[in-house]
Amino acid sequence: MIFASYRIEQMNIKDQALSISGYLTFNWKDPRLDWSDPTNTTQDYGNVDFLFSTEEYVWRPSIIIENSIQDMGVISDKSTPMRITNRGMVVWSPSGIFVVSCESDTTYYPLDTQDCKLKVSSKAYTINVLIFICYLSLYLAFVLFLAAMSVVLTIFVLRAHYATGEIPKVFKILFRCTSHSKVDVEILEKTDVGEFEHEDNKLTWQIVAVGMDTVFFYVYVVLISVVTSVLTVAYIIHYQSI
């Protein structure tokens, strides 16, 4: 941002105010206005180096004069055109008479020197807020992904709970390896070949469904904890490095 003054209109020592005329020059890059690459446009505009438009049709930042004592609204100048290059660079130079506060010290008048400032700031997001929004968006996208997966896995668990067919061998192996529970009461059932087996240890689809549901729950807890910790630490490190 550059400020070029025309002249000082008035220096009011009594009211501690400075009135100055000039223009502010802002420049920013808008990728949506880049037509330098013909593959991204419907036609080849390579012979057009720049064009002009106004704030009615082109995005502009919300700029205010922070120490203004006359108008705290967003700077607007519909009569001043914006110069747009084929690379998407926008240059805008709104002009006006700006009345700002200026603390004056007349101790050494008429040999005094006054230092007045024109404070320009944006009413948009700060860099820290943008970084926070970026990390929050990543986290919400991850949560939405887990939510979608939970719906799929819930359907899978419910189908397993009400299944009636033979249990696949892979489930039998997994549950045999992970089962360490003790049976307090043994109910013995005689098989056709005269052997006995534990009724409580018989694997059913209901047991498989409950086991899968438990595993999915702990996996979700671990994933959410790890991703939350990683994004929090990354945001703190990024925040401190600014």
TrEMBL record:
Residues that span the membrane, as ranges: 127-158, 215-237
Coiled-coil ranges per UniProt: none
Coiled coil keyword on record: no
Membrane topology, as annotated: Multi-pass membrane protein
Subcellular location: Membrane
One Gene Ontology MF term: transmembrane signaling receptor activity
SUPFAM superfamilies: Neurotransmitter-gated ion-channel transmembrane pore (SSF90112), Nicotinic receptor ligand binding domain-like (SSF63712)
Entry-linked InterPro entries: Neur_chan_lig-bd (IPR006202), Neur_chan_lig-bd_sf (IPR036734), Neur_channel (IPR006201), Neuro-gated_channel_TM_sf (IPR036719), Neuro_actylchol_rec (IPR038050)
Domain Neurotransmitter-gated ion-channel ligand-binding: 6-130
Any Pfam family hit: Neur_chan_LBD
GO cellular component, one term: membrane
CDD domains assigned to the protein according to its UniProt record, in alphabetical order: LGIC_ECD_cation (cd18989)
Keywords: Membrane, Transmembrane, Transmembrane helix
Name of this protein: Neurotransmitter-gated ion-channel ligand-binding domain-containing protein
